[in-house]
Amino acid sequence: MDFLDILAIITTATLYTSAPLVFTALGGVFSERSGVVNIALEGLMLFGAFIGIVSTLLLENKFGEITPWLALLFAAVGSGIFASLHALASITFKADQTVSGVAINFMALGISVFAIKKIFDGKGQTDFIQNRIDKIDIPVLSDIPIIGDLFFQSVPLTSYIAIVLAFIVWFIIFKTPFGLRLRAVGEHPAAADTMGINVIKMRYTAVIISGMLAGIGGAVYAISISGNFSSVTIAGQGFLALAAMIFGKWHPLGTLAAAMFFGFAQALGITGAYIPIVKDLPSAFLTMLPYVLTILALTGFVGRAEAPKALGIPYEKGKR
User: Pick the residue with more confidence: 170 or 305?
Assistant: First the structure.
């Protein structure tokens, strides 16, 4: 196996594994740019994975190959509604946002496992789905020498959608009136309020969008990678997405790069057996590599990243 073959394997696996992180981390950008801490990304991702797999299992005999795409829609709606609980607690009732996020994580796990046992006759996991989001070759682009092999062959369409979405989110946040209002309520909500911006509405909207994107991220992971759902399907993926958002300095394109970085670390764990140097490392080391790199990355860069100034601070009208 030559260098280009190894590079193609790693690149393809990186695009494959980073897509769920990109969707979820971009969701975190919306929430935290509005001033609401969203540690609930793990639970929202888990809930999306649950809805995605169950929807696919229930509908695939009727809708066939389009079922996974319908499941992504159901996951987005379901996790968006679930995220509104976090918004209600942290925005309306002004609860501690970190505690609320942790509670959402436990609720998502409890509800999904309970529902799985009820639906699947006491089993701890679902059956495997028959229709997945398959890997594809992009016409024309996949025929380009070297570049086509590296970036446009055997990659799920969701990976390309995630990359494009990062640029769309960048445009929304930095080039539209909605994005300006979003950043204003995250930096100085009192000043935004005096300018006629509805702080509560903006924060609710941001948290619900965050939940929808995290739900899509969870469903993408379950439908394209795991193929079924259990309590350990989303094992820390939401927290990796949260780390990618922070590593990316709450910027959509920085978040995309950070998610790709963590996806690369996961890809090494998946493809390590095919890489001459890496294959000699213990498998346990490759499994924990993404989390080790997370600690190292955040240790080196978080101090230089500036979070939105009102992040984690409930807004009370009339108080500065």
Answer: 170
Strands 155-156 and 135-136: antiparallel
Q: What 3-state DSSP class applies to 248?
A: coil
Q: 15: which 2 tokens? A: 């695009």
pLDDT in tens, 208-243: 999 999 999 999 999 999 999 999 999 889 999 999
Indicate whether 305 belongs to any domain: no
How far is it, in rounded angstroms, from Cα 82 to Cα 87? 9
Question: Rounded to the nearest 5°, which phi and psi values hold at 131?
Answer: -110, 115
Number of domains forming the structure of the chain: 1
- Phi then psi for residue 136, to 5 deg, are -130, 165
Is 165's pLDDT higher than 90? Answer: yes
> What pLDDT, on a 0 to 100 scale, did the predictor assign at position 2?
66
Query: What was the pLDDT predicted at 139?
Result: 84
DSSP string, 94-160: ---HHHHHHHHHHHHHHHHHHHHHHHTTT-SBPPPPS----EE--TTGGGSTTHHHHHSSSEEHHHH
Does residue 2 belong to any structural domain of this protein? no
